[in-house]
C-alpha cells in the first residue's frame, strides 16, 4: 500500500493519518516538533522545517505522493522536488493560488471570477489612496503566510494605514489592500479533484467567524437558495479544473446582502470548513484528500443527516482547572451523540484544540448543542448553567 507524505504536523495531518489508517496506508509527516499533533500519532515522522529543502527531500523519499497540511512551503523548493521526480499534489503551479493572495486575486480577476476590488500595497500612500477610492475602513492583508486572521487588519483611517503599513513593510511583509465587503455571511464550497480529473463536491456550508477565526460551520448552509448553492459549487469545480488543483480545496466565499458571491480565498488541503464531513458525510475530506492525491476514484460526498454542525474547541483565556479528560467524561454523560475530535494540543488562548460535530434535523437545535459542547470543552462551563449533581 502507498505511503503519502504530508508537509506539516498539525491537526489536519493528524486527521489525515486517521483516514490513512482505515485505508491501510501510511502517512509520513514532516513535523517541526515531536509533540506536534500528527507527530504524536503517526510512526513515520521526519523532524524538520518546511522551509528546509533537505528536510523536504528526506520526507519525500519513497513516498507515492507529497501533499500539505498548510500552504507555507516555498514554491521554489516544490519546483525542485518536482524536477527530482517527486509527485507533488497539488502541483506547485496550482498551490501558488492558495499561498499568495495577490497572485490569487489577479488570477481570479483574469478568469472573470468575482473578487473584492484590491490592489498591491508597496507604501502607506498606496494604502491611503486605496482607502480614499474604495472607502474606509478597508482590509489590509499579508500576501503570504497569514492564517486564522493573523495577517488581516481592518484599517479605519489614514493614521492607522500609516502605522500598520510602515510596520509591516519594515518586517518584510508583502501587502495587499482590498475593499471591506458588506457581507451577509461567509460560505465555503469544498471540492476534491484527482490528477485524472475526477471531481466531487460536498454541500456548500456556512462558516461563522469570530475575531477573524472560524468558530462554527453549518452544513449545509441554511436557507441558501438552490441556484446560489449551485453557483458556488460550479465556481469551485471550475476553479479546481482551471487552476489544475488536486486534492481537497475549499473556496471561501462572501455572500453579500444583495445576493452576490465573492471569492475570499482558496485553501488546497483539508480545511476547517470540511471537518463536519468526518461524521456528517459518507466520505469526509481527509479520506477524500488521500484518494484524490493518490488518483483513486473519489468517494460519495452525500450528507448523512439533514444538518451537521461543527464547533471548534478553542483554548480559553485561562485554561480551566478541570482536566480535558474530566471535561470529556461530563460531555459524554450529557451528550452521548456528540462526536468529539481532539488534537493533542496544549491549551493556549484561542488556539484550535479540537472540534465537535453534531448531526440532527433542526439547525437551531443542533447548532446550540454543538456550540454548548464546544464551550464546555474549552471552559468547563455549561452556558445554560447545567449541573450534573443537581
Ligand atoms: N475583504 C473583506 N471584507 C470583509 N471581511 C473580510 C475581508 N477579508 C477578510 N475578511 C474577514 O477576515 C477573515 C479572515 O480573512 P482571510 O480568510 O483572508 O484570512 P486568513 O487568516 O488567511 O484566514 P484563515 O483563517 O481562513 O486561514 C475572513 O474570514 C473574514 O471574516
Ligand atoms: Mg480565510
Provide a quick synopsis of the model.
With 390 residues, this protein is α+β, with helices and mostly antiparallel strands.
Q: How would you describe this protein?
A:
The chain contains twelve helices and 17 strands. The relative contact order is 0.11. With 390 residues, the protein is of the alpha+beta class. The chain has helices at 11-22, 53-60, 75-83, 92-99, 101-110, 124-134, 158-170, 226-243, 277-280, 285-293, 324-334, 363-379; strands spanning 3-7, 26-31, 45-47, 65-68, 118-121, 138-142, 152-155, 175-179, 183-193, 199-201, 205-210, 213-219, 247-256, 261-267, 307-314, 339-342, 352-360. The protein starts with a strand and ends in an 11-residue tail after the last helix. The strands form three sheets. Strands 9, 10, 11, 12, 13, 14, 15, 16 and 17 form a nine-stranded antiparallel β-sheet that branches. The mean pLDDT is 97. The protein has three domains: 3-88, Rossmann fold; 117-179, Dna Ligase, domain 1, CATH 3.30.1490.20; 183-379, D-amino Acid Aminotransferase, Chain A, domain 1 (2-Layer Sandwich). Helix 1 (11-22) crosses helix 10 (285-293). The radius of gyration is 21 Å and the shape is globular. Bound molecules: adenosine-5'-triphosphate and magnesium ion (MG). Magnesium ion binds at residues 252, 264-265. Catalyzes the ATP-dependent conversion of 5-aminoimidazole ribonucleotide (AIR) and HCO(3)- to N5-carboxyaminoimidazole ribonucleotide (N5-CAIR). Pathway: Purine metabolism; IMP biosynthesis via de novo pathway; 5-amino-1-(5-phospho-D-ribosyl)imidazole-4-carboxylate from 5-amino-1-(5-phospho-D-ribosyl)imidazole (N5-CAIR route): step 1/2.
